Amino acid sequence: MKVVVLGSGGSWPSRDRNPPAVALKLDGDILLFDCAEGTQRQFMLSSLSFMQVRHILISHLHADHFLGLPGLVETMALNGRKEPLHVFGPAGSAARLRTLFTVGYFSPAFDIHFRDLEPGEQVSLDWLDLTCARAVHQVPALSYAVEEPGRPGKFDLQKAKALGIPEGPLFNRLQSGVPVTVRGKTFTPDMVLGPPRKGRKVVYTGDTSPSPELLELARDCDLLIHDSTADEKLTEKANQFGHSSNVQAARAAADSGALRLLLVHVSPRFGPEEAPRILEEAKKIFPGTVLASDLMELEVGHRDGATKP
Questions:
Q1: pTM for the complete prediction?
Q2: Can you give the CATH number for the domain in which 93 is found?
């Protein structure tokens, strides 16, 4: 599982940061959190292909979070896409986004399925399970958690050998959850596997000020991608507009038991020279903090063998 930051800024593009768009790749599929203007070009500069995007999760309908959607869809169409695209958002977004696609004179040669989601709703995306929570912002907004299905427990090699199970294909069958028979005796997976392990969990807050709902959504996640519009000095002002500061994001990571924190949606008021200070303020509270930059890539490891940034 890989996260690629296509846009790490907020509000409007700056020379250093594109507005919000974060791609999550698992195997051959890509899920996209938000789709700011210029996202299709950011894809071209990255290691990913926009043609592999299957689902887009729009956090809310402020311009810097969805204006790239028509351009991305048209670019997909001009490159021969045929597979359907699924676009999710908070209440009222489906109707508004459908209207957006009636303004121009292009018609994609593939189906686009728009769907409103409600806080607390859970959806299966085939390869990931999606859960929504209310984001505290100026307009209807959602935060998203995506999680892999659970994995079998660790295979205990020594225990399997002690039971007299020969190495080879039988080990693979047991790891896959299938009982095996050796010399008339049946061995079940629970005899050689540890307790089941949770799949990887990634949470994307979108724009939000701190809330109990967000903490619960982010509980024990492997990566928390959090709004970090302001620095510590501007925390109160950020909250007035439905945003969080870097220190509030760090506290959310610590309080929710997150494994790592990725700070995104950095205000254009902060130039590159401010980055070390913004990061250090957050790391004092949560050492596992990373400050996003455009085209940054992170591997999302399992909690029992986490990949470091």
A1: 0.89
A2: 3.60.15.10
